[in-house]
Fold this protein.
Amino acid sequence: MRWCRFRVGEKVSYGLVEGDEVAQVMGTPFGRHRRTGTRLPLSEVKLLVPCVPPTFYAAGVNYMDHVTGTAALLGRSAEPPAKPDIGYRANNALTGHGDPIVIPGDATQDVQYEGELVVVISKQAKDLREDQVWDYILGYTIGNDVSERTWQHGDRTLWRAKNADTFKPMGPWIDTEADPAEMRTTVRLNHRVVADFATNNMIYGIATYLSVMTKYITLYPGDVVWMGTDGIPQNMKPGDVVEVEISGIGTLQNPVLAEGT
Amino acid sequence: MRWCRFRVGEKVSYGLVEGDEVAQVMGTPFGRHRRTGTRLPLSEVKLLVPCVPPTFYAAGVNYMDHVTGTAALLGRSAEPPAKPDIGYRANNALTGHGDPIVIPGDATQDVQYEGELVVVISKQAKDLREDQVWDYILGYTIGNDVSERTWQHGDRTLWRAKNADTFKPMGPWIDTEADPAEMRTTVRLNHRVVADFATNNMIYGIATYLSVMTKYITLYPGDVVWMGTDGIPQNMKPGDVVEVEISGIGTLQNPVLAEGT
C-alpha cells in the first residue's frame, strides 16, 4: 500500500496511490480512515510531504563509507559514532516531491544532497525491544538531507546548514510493504548516477535505533526517523535536478533554484 | 490576555485565564476563535502545554553568567556564542504545568533545571527586520529546559540529555501583554530561591534571534523559541518541587519523580 498526501484546490487529503491514480481517503493512515470513492489521476494532484511529523528525527552519520570519505575530505581520522545518538531536523525545512530546493543567496557552492531512507512511525511506542519495532512502523519514504557544508562546519548548530527552508524534501509517498533488507538507494544529479548503495548497510540499523530511542523517548504516530546516507555527496547548483530513488519505494525528484529566481 | 490549553474529560480546548476562572474558547489563538460561554474554575481544569509547536526552537547558551559559570565548572575558558545560531528541542519531551519531571532510571544525579523565557509565534514570518518581530509574537510563556549533564557532555547529540520524555515542562499559559524588558526570572527548588536574574539580559535578544532566524527559516503560528537561562543550575532529585516564575507571566511548577515510582 502506498500512502500519499496531496492538495486539490484548498483541500489537503491523504490518498492511496494505485497505479497512475490516487484513491482519496478521509482520515489519516495513523487513525480511522475510509476511501471517499473519489479517484484522481496521479499526474494531476500536487503531492505534499506524506506526513508532518510531531518530532523529526535524523540519525545523521550512519554509513561507514560516508564516515571514511568525509573524514578524508576534512583531513581527520575516520571515527564512526560510538553509539546510536539520534539527532533532529526541523519541520520548516520540509518540502514535497517536485518542489524546488531553494539555495539561500549567501550560501557557498557547497550545497549537497544526501539520499536517505525515512522510517514513518505508526503508533505510540515506548521501551521497544528490537524484535518489536517492526510493529510500530507504518512504512518507508525517501528524504533528501540537503546540507550547506560551510555552515555545517562553522555554525554552533545545524540550523541553517540542514534546516533552511526547502532543505528537507520528503516523499513521494509512504510504502507500507517495502523491505529495507532488499532496498538500494540511488541518487542521480541531472539524471547521472552520483551515489548507489545498499540502503540497509547502516552502522546502526532501524531496530537498534528505535529500540535505543524508546528507552528515553516516546514515539508518536507520524514521527519520522531519517536513517542517514552513504558515500561522498557532490555539490548541487541552481538549474540542477536531483533524484533519490529507493527500490521498493519510488523516486523523490526536486529541482534546484537560487533564491530570488 | 492569558491563553491556556486544557483538558476537561476527553476534550482539549483553548481558554482565557481570567482571575481564578477559565473562559473556554472554540478555535485557537492562532486563528479564528470565539468564547463558548462556558466558564470553569481554574483549579478544576488540567492545564496542558499552552501550544504544541510545529518546530521547537531553543537558543541554548544565551546569558553571560551562565557562560562563565559553566566554563569555570568544566575548567574551560568562557566563550560566548559568536553569533545567534538557534538550536532545537523535541516535542516528545513537552509536559504541562503540574506534571512530573520523571528522571530516567540510569540518569546520573546531575539532572538540573534551567528556567527560560519562551516566545510564542503568532503568524507566519520570513525575513523580519528587528523592529518587525514584535508584531509576530503572540506572547510569552515559561519553560524549564531540564538537562542531564553527563549525557549532555558525553552523547553526540542532546537527544536524551535535553529531550527525554518530560524534560521540557512548558506553561502555565501564554501572556500576551507581558514586557520582556520588565521581567525577572526566579527559580525555586523546594521553595528556596536558587536562581534570580533579569530575563532580558540575554547575549542575543529576542529581536536579534527572530530577525536572524527568519533570514533562512519561515516561522509558523505556534512555533516556540526558548531563550536560554542564566546562572549555574543545581541538581534536582526525586521528591523535589521546582518552580520557574517570570514576573508578568506566572509560575511553572513541576514535581520531580524517579522513573518507575
In short: The two ends of chain B are 38 Å apart (CA to CA).
